[in-house]
Design a protein that fits this description.
Blueprint lengths: L1 E4 L3 H7 L12 E4 L34 E7 L4 H17 L2 E5 L5 E2 L16 E2 L4 E6 L2 E7 L1 H8 L2
């Protein structure tokens, strides 16, 4: 059974935000039937997409017209729930680059202001997992949470 929650467990843990403040962030789906077992049934490994790992400094330097950058953390339960689908999409499309909890990234509630930015100084994410779409060396989309990410990747 899927339940939509208005809390970002990963961001809350990272920033120490109380659960009331987290309601301003996008909703995330929690599948209570899995009881955390999705981590144990993972069929993919990040090693499979190691060629798609990039340094934080290269986010805007990929020589493609359009691509995605996926931000995740290995300790994040939501990241681990969607790991197989994101990796499958990356292997199929070869258009997703990965960053594992980059220390340089900045966090903000209002990520809509990042649309159109083309520099690291103005790039923010809402938390983990996040997916940004870069087109013509500028942010076209900045998505936080499993539902938005999987919808964007059509998974």
């Amino acid at each position: 059974m899927k339940i939509t929650l208005f809390a970002l467990p990963c961001l809350i843990a990272l920033l120490g935000v109380d659960s009331c403040a987290a309601t301003v962030f996008p909703s995330f789906a929690y599948d209570e039937s899995s009881n955390g077992s999705s981590q144990n049934t993972s069929t993919h490994s990040y090693e499979e997409v190691s060629a798609f790992f990039i340094p934080y400094e290269e986010i805007f330097l990929i020589d493609k017209i359009s691509y995605y950058v996926y931000f995740y953390a290995s300790w994040c339960p939501v990241c681990n729930e969607i790991k197989d689908k994101v990796i499958s999409s990356a292997l199929l499309n070869q258009n997703i680059y990965f960053l594992n909890e980059p220390r340089e990234i900045k966090y903000a509630e209002n990520i809509s202001s990042t649309i159109g930015v083309s520099s690291l100084e103005n790039l923010y994410i809402v938390g983990y997992p996040s997916l940004i779409k870069i087109s013509n060396q500028a942010v076209e989309k900045n998505l936080g949470g499993d539902i938005l990410i999987l919808n964007e990747l059509r998974m």
